[in-house]
Amino acid sequence: MKKFLFGITATVTLVLNVSAQKNNPYNSVGVDIVKSLKMIQSDYDNGKIKSIDQKTTDYYMNIIPSKAEVNPEVVSATVGAMKNSNYTETVKKSKLSTFAKDILLQSQQNSTDIPALVNKVTNQKLDSFENELVLTSLATTYNLGLSSPLSRCSVNGQTGPNACQAAGALIGLTIGSAICGPLCGVGGAIIGAVFGSTKD
């Protein structure tokens, strides 16, 4: 019996360790974004969220595991981009470097090796803002892939291989970070992912 329990424990530990994105220093941020998304998504699916106003965002920013900030500009810009644009356009129009844009767009392609992209980023000399944004996006896309099956989706005509949540998170992270920094990027990623889930 002890050998059986040891075997199960070892297997569970191995599976949990394999699923972590060990080479990404922002993996825990991606894990928290996905946990936060699931909390908000559950309430949204159950009709508990009637609108995305300041009272609603303040409430969720206080109970979700992610350290995030959201203001009306981040909400409006993220939702507007989700309605009128796509992740490719959002990334291409951003003020990020060509290298950062290329990595973010590659992350949304079918069967992308996210850990390999992380290695490219960590070997590149990006400024701290871009480094955090790109690695957070990769961690979010990676962890969304672990938590839900990847699917093809269309966000305003732009078809991507990952769940629409990943495309929405990329849009929100890019926009939120540009408006008011990394914490707003995390808030934008969560809003974008929730909005993206309505397109799956």
Brief characterization of the structure:
This protein is mostly helical. It has helices at residues 2-19, 27-45, 54-63, 72-84, 87-93, 98-106, 114-123, 128-147, 164-180, 182-197, and strands at residues 153-155, 158-160. Helix content is 70%, strand content 3%.
Structural class: mainly alpha
How much helicity do the residues have? 55-70%
Q: Give the CA-CA distance, first to last residue.
A: 45 Å
Order of helix and strand elements from N to C terminus: HHHHHHHHEEHH
Major β-sheet profile: 2 strands, antiparallel
Strand order of the largest sheet: 1-2
Radius of gyration: 17 Å
| Overall morphology | globular
The whole-number mean of residue pLDDT values reads 83
**Which residues sit in consecutive blocks of at least 5 with pLDDT less than 50?**
1-18
User: Number of DSSP strands?
Assistant: 2
Q: Note the total helix count.
A: 10
Question: Could you tell me the strand content as a percent range?
Answer: under 5%
